[in-house]
Write a structure and sequence with these properties.
Distance between the termini: 19 Å
Order of helices and strands: EHHEHEHEE
Structural class: alpha/beta
Number of helices: 4
Helix content: 25-40%
Strand content: 15-25%
Number of strands: 5
Radius of gyration: 18 Å
Shape: globular
Strand order of the largest sheet: 1-2-3
Largest sheet: 3 strands, parallel
């Protein structure tokens, strides 16, 4: 499976779209800005050519109900890829971008897998099936 770990600011939302968004904003509850159409088009091209799925690594994932919100946001923005989850959120220093690599690695280390073995926890005991299929953070 090919996975795109997607950041929003600087990737989909560039200086031009951020400036235009703040200028056009009329209500405090409104999203402050959105993506640049060219950036969305390039992401969609990459997705179509590779068949990759999306895991959101952007700090935008730090919201209530992040999986649904990220899918809704990207769909509203015209991103055609399938969002399969978000990277986990690690606590640490105040600069989230410094942890992004560790968060992506943790997602990769715990990515969807299924283990079927005839021994409990790879030791002795009755057969057990262990699954880890939820990387929603």
């Amino acid at each position: 499976m090919k996975v795109i770990f997607l950041d929003f600011d600087g990737v989909l939302c560039n200086h031009e779209s951020i400036a235009a968004g703040y200028k056009a904003r009329t209500e405090p509850a409104q999203e402050p800005y959105g993506p640049h159409a060219d950036c969305v088009a390039q992401l969609n091209r990459i997705i179509e050519e590779t068949g990759a799925v999306i895991v959101v690594s952007s700090t935008w994932r730090k919201c209530r109900n992040p999986n649904a919100n990220m899918r809704d946001t990207l769909g509203r923005w015209g991103v055609r890829g399938q969002v399969i989850g978000i990277t986990p959120i690690l606590n640490g220093d105040q600069y989230a971008y410094k942890r992004r690599g560790s968060e992506i690695q943790l997602w990769l280390d715990t990515a969807c897998h299924v283990v079927c073995d005839s021994r409990r926890r790879f030791g002795h005991g009755p057969p057990e099936t262990s699954t880890s299929a939820d990387n929603d953070g």
